[in-house]
Amino acid sequence: MFAYYFQLGLRSLRRNPVLTLLMVMAIGFGVAASMITYSVFRAVSGNPIPDKSAQLFIPQIDGWGPQQNLKGEPAEAVSYIDAMALLRAHEAKRKTMLYQVLMSVMPGGDRELPIAVNGYAVGSDFFAMFEVPFRYGGRWSEQDDAARAADVVISGELNQKVFGGANSVGRTIDLGGHDYRVVGVTSHWNPRPRFYDLFSTDGFADEPDIYLPFTRAMDLKMYPSGRNSCRGQLSFTNWTDYTQSNCVWITPWVELDTPAEVASYRSFLTNYAIDQQHAGRFNWAPNVRLRDVVQWLDHEHVVPPESRISLVVALGFFLICLVNTIGLLLAKFMRRAGEIGVRRALGATRREIYAQYLIEAATVGLVGGVLGLLLTALGVSGVGMLFPPQIAQLAELDVSLVGLTLVVAIVATVLAAFYPAWRAAHVQPAWQLKSS
């Protein structure tokens, strides 16, 4: 019966081409507008590390006090003094301190000019904590961290530029006039949003080129290339003064597997702040935070407001299209009241009438979904006119979006057809036969 009703639906669509075209266009444009904006919203609001987001936490310590902090919230990063204290503590399964660095790959081989590269100074735990994939080699060891070793992990893209894509593990690369031993080459890895560094980025920056030991960067007195935030009247001209100031520029992360570990680490942060208060460094009550990845993304308002607004507007437009579709389907079905009356008089049940007209509506939804799919493909390629380039490039028409577009179009049209189908199923056969 499904095939029969589907055939009837196709005949009905051909019988009223103008009405059919209006319904298909309403569904197509409505679903396209929704899917285009949803593709952007999905890209910027997704969980970048879903299997570990509940185990990764960012500690925050208020080193500025109530007169200078962020409306009662601690700074989004920590100072050198606090970072070193967190690094020396053995309160977490894994931990890393990180900050942005900017260096140059000096000429060598066939290259006559240096290559500017950006990356991070990190701890060796960084790679296991954030599940960084490797093409060649792996991370450096904790012993290398302690020895301030001149090791480096490079991206696959940088490996292609410098070493032609070959396995470069064990080879030497000149970064800023210092030789570094390549211990690993990453596969493409650039989680969006970049949850681990929302202090120096908006979460949608290009993939980093290098990762070098945090202790090595400290040994070389390497100033951050990313954001740096200070409070009060400060005056420093050298590395020592800078590291002893209240400037925050280092982002700490810890891995905690159980609620008990989370509670224990939170108590550690509070006790550390109390110790700093007793030492005279802080003259305010302890003010600490410990947020996991999802909480951190929410706190930082990573999802651009324009993506939320555009999605709401698009859904409103789609709702208007569905309301118009209800009216068009009602007009289309009720024009066939005489046909329905004859079918009912010949023994067709209301359930069969429902089935016929809902399948016909599903056919309209399918055709509208195909049109919406074409418009979505066109719209995704043009989202750069509404969103910044780094966000627009995240929108893509993948298999899941194709399937979702068709499903939404069909389901929405069937739901819109329930009232028209109900009206059609309740046509009185006697009245129709008498009037005919």
Automatic annotation (TrEMBL):
Residues 312-429 form the ABC3 transporter permease C-terminal domain. InterPro entries: ABC3_permease_C, MacB_PCD, Macrolide_Exporter_MacB. The chain crosses the membrane at residues 21-41, 309-333, 354-387, 399-422. Keywords: Cell membrane, Membrane, Transmembrane, Transmembrane helix. It is found in: Cell membrane. Its main location: membrane. It comes from the Bacteria. It is a multi-pass membrane protein. Residues 20-219 form the MacB-like periplasmic core domain. PANTHER family: ABC-TYPE MACROLIDE FAMILY EXPORT SYSTEM PERMEASE COMPONENT 2 (PTHR30572:SF18), MEMBRANE COMPONENT OF TRANSPORTER-RELATED (PTHR30572). This is ABC transporter permease. It comes from Rhodanobacter humi.
